[in-house]
Amino acid sequence: MQSMDTNTPASTGKATHTVSFSQDGESFLLDGEPFQIRSGEMHPARIPADYWQHRILMAKAMGMNCIALYVMWNYHETSPGTFDFRTGNRDIEAFIRLCQQEGMWVLLRPGPYICGEWDLGGIPWYLLSDPDIQLRTDSAHDPRYMSAVARYIRELSPCIEPLLVNRGGPILMIQIENEFGSYAANPAYLEEIRQLWLQEGIQGPFYTEDGIRQLEQNRTNVSGGAIALSNGDAEQIAAVRQQFPAVPAMAGEVYPGWLTHWGDETFNGTAADISATLDAFMQRKLSFNLYVIHGGTSFGFYAGANVDADSGEYQPDITSYDYAAPISEQGVATSKYMKYRGVIGRYLSTPLPEIPQPVPTISRKGSRALMPELYASVWDNLPAALPAAQTVDPQPFEMYGQAFGFALYRKTLQGYRGGVLDIKEVHDYATVFIGEQYVGGVSRAWMPEHHAQPLNVMHHAPLVLPPVSSSQEREVSMEILVEGMGRVNYGHAMLDRKGLLEPVTLTEAGDSSDTLTGWEVFLLPMDAAFIANLRAVCANPRKAGLFFKATLSLDTLGDTYLDMHRWTKGVVWVNGNNLGRYWNIGPQKRLYCPAPWLRLGDNEIIIFDLHQMEAKPVELARTLS
């Protein structure tokens, strides 16, 4: 039983098409004929723009005829009202036109909420500066949220409208929100989003995405919209068709791998095999989307987090979004890729395209490894403290107008004699100093004991502070350096602000607890401007919170991974580009650096580590593990 695509999106952008649904709801129709959507998902925000074409062609060579993509709202509106849909890998229109150029259709998934193991599920951080904000709800419940959504859709629509199939573009359908059935039952909210698109002249077709149980329970489809199923298979499609006979259904997220959190024993999803699922789709000509065919990387501070439904534990996502996908983080065709390509190819009447050549890689090991040197101290690069009126009690980043990075909270203690420090809500990782001495840390995320114990890092527990080395009571400075990790991107824990969320208390020996007020607060966004303006000063090289620097000299370019397994916890920049977080609790120990971020000659590597005071070699490797 073979199938063949009779229509492809015209690379000129002049030929128009129509997408509709059969009257019995059995099929997606392209120009009136039944059409099987074979989609592979990838995210432009997670792929350097230089590699977009390569990854699209990789998907095509595996038998896909469509690319699904999220638009991460917070990646395009980084501050209120300031949008960027045009530069670098934020140029959504360029990515979609490239899909069209390579003969691929597009499923657009613009949110406003997308989940995606992405910070706050793609919703902008600044909304959390309203203490009582409600997210993912209609105007009647929170007009502030929906006003921001409306602004986003108004800004995105002019980029999208010319790319719809009825305008000669490749976009087949637009998704309304994402997996809302896992969050709530509120038809008014989904309909309000649909109406916002209609007001901008975008008529769809629309579709929704949910797990089958959540869809059945909360009825989160939209008027006239198709239905996509998370973790869907042929049997679930048949079941949904019985309940919703008027519109077609597809498997909207078929998982060839899975996500990984910091502290997991290994990379998840490597044992998954969806060959039988793909075979059933192809045999029955059912439409599907592989989530993800290629994951890429959550560069910078954009990796999200979960909260475990049973334990309530915070689970931040690793930087890599390899996802054990058929196309690896670095763009390599894995054994899964070859297997699935074979399954799909058996049902097609024309041969699949040749697999694109892999991107070259470089490595350096042993004596050729990088040897960073001490460069600067965060303590010698503090900005001016915030006005005292804002810092009587410590507040989270968002209340100070900061999106990502770190913040330092400083308090002078009078007559300090040691005691027990209780930081009830640290989001998400804090190192604590008394005077110039590191005395321990607090981690919101669970840490394996063999990593936590040497650093005296407590998990949600009070921290015992030592007395100062003097028999006299004295004045001493206490400093709490807080790292905000990924905001929760799924479920009702999404109101996830960063920094110190509640008052800090100190209990000294034999005394009652005192709530500490009157802080100095220093914002450390660790953005490109902050790193570019670092002063190479380090007054105390024995006080953790240090920057290290290495020069990588290259006479040829290629992708590489920086192996950080000898380091503790921090962030790496290459020529000013933030590769993301590393953490020795693993399982990720290497950070992907794409060749377009390197240059011939000297390259600057900057490492910020929260604990390390001694530089260690950094090898360059060709693979994630």
Describe the overall structure.
- InterPro entries: B-gal_1-like, BetaGal1-like_ABD1, BetaGal_gal-bd, Galactose-bd-like_sf, GH, Gly_Hdrlase_35_cat, Glyco_hydro_35_CS, Glycoside_Hdrlase_35.
- It catalyses: Hydrolysis of terminal non-reducing beta-D-galactose residues in beta-D-galactosides.
- The active site is at 179 (proton donor), 253 (nucleophile).
- The structure is a single chain.
- This protein is α/β, with parallel strands linked by helices.
- The protein has three domains: 19-345, TIM Barrel; 366-374 and 534-621, Jelly Rolls (Sandwich), CATH 2.60.120.260; 382-524, Galactose-binding domain-like (Jelly Rolls, Sandwich), CATH 2.60.120.260.
- 17% of the residues lie in helices and 27% in strands.
- The protein contains eleven helices and 35 strands.
- It has an eight-stranded parallel β-barrel, surrounded by four helices. A six-stranded mixed sheet has the order 22-21-20-24-17-28.
- A hairpin with a 2-residue loop joins strand 2 and strand 3 (33-34).
- Helix 8 packs parallel to helix 9 (335-345).
List its salient traits:
625 residues, alpha/beta, TIM Barrel, Jelly Rolls, 3 domains, eight-stranded parallel barrel, six-stranded mixed sheet, Galactose-bd-like_sf, GH
- Please describe the biggest sheet, giving its number of strands, its sense, and whether it closes into a barrel: 8 strands, parallel, barrel
* Spatial strand order of the main sheet: 4-5-8-9-10-11-12-13
Taken together, the total number of domains comes to 3
Shape: globular
The CATH class of the largest domain is: Alpha Beta
Structural class assignment: alpha/beta
What is the mean pLDDT?
95
Residues in helix, %: 10-25%
Question: Termini separation (Å)?
Answer: 40 Å
- Radius of gyration from the alpha-carbon trace, in angstroms: 26 Å
